[in-house]
Amino acid sequence: MGRRIKIAEKSNWETIAFLVINDMLGGSNRVFARSQLMSANNLQTAIDWSIALGHKEKPEKPEETLQKTIQNMRDKDYIKFLGRGDYKLTLIGLNKMKEVVNKVNELLEKINSMKVND
């Protein structure tokens, strides 16, 4: 595989989690359920982003990796656990998510413009 794209400081899975959460929430809400995040559709989206960012094409345990990432994001105060499987993006997390999404969009625009110019 080609070069690995690094968006986040430490973890591309953090980037992936933010991308999935952003897509899932559509910018209208900050509360989400673990079951919603771990749905088959969202896990496939996470795997697709993992491949796009240069990780394994077939991650061995994406659900466990995503769950651990959510725990790490909680520890960073990006996400607050509300109980009963519900989470809420904190304002810090919302701002970080916007930053990550913007970086990914800028990168994709650069890649697309390079393809157009070829």
Write structural notes for this entry.
The protein is mainly alpha-helical and 118 residues long. The chain has a single domain (12-117), classed as Winged helix-like DNA-binding domain superfamily/Winged helix DNA-binding domain (Arc Repressor Mutant, subunit A, Orthogonal Bundle), CATH 1.10.10.10. Helices cover 61% and strands 10% of the residues. It has helices at residues 12-25, 34-37, 40-52, 62-75, 91-117, and strands at 31-33, 79-83, 86-89. The protein has a 3-stranded antiparallel beta sheet with strand order 1-3-2. The chain is globular. The model has no long low-confidence stretch (mean pLDDT 85).
Which architecture name does CATH use?
Orthogonal Bundle
Strand residue content? 5-15%
Quaternary state, please? single chain
Calculate Rg over CA atoms.
Answer: 14 Å
Residues in helix, %: 55-70%
Whole-number count of domains: 1
Biggest sheet, in brief? 3 strands, antiparallel
Number of helices: 5
Q: Whole-Å distance between the termini?
A: 21 Å
- CATH C-level category: Mainly Alpha
- Point out poorly predicted stretches: none
Order of helices and strands: HEHHHEEH
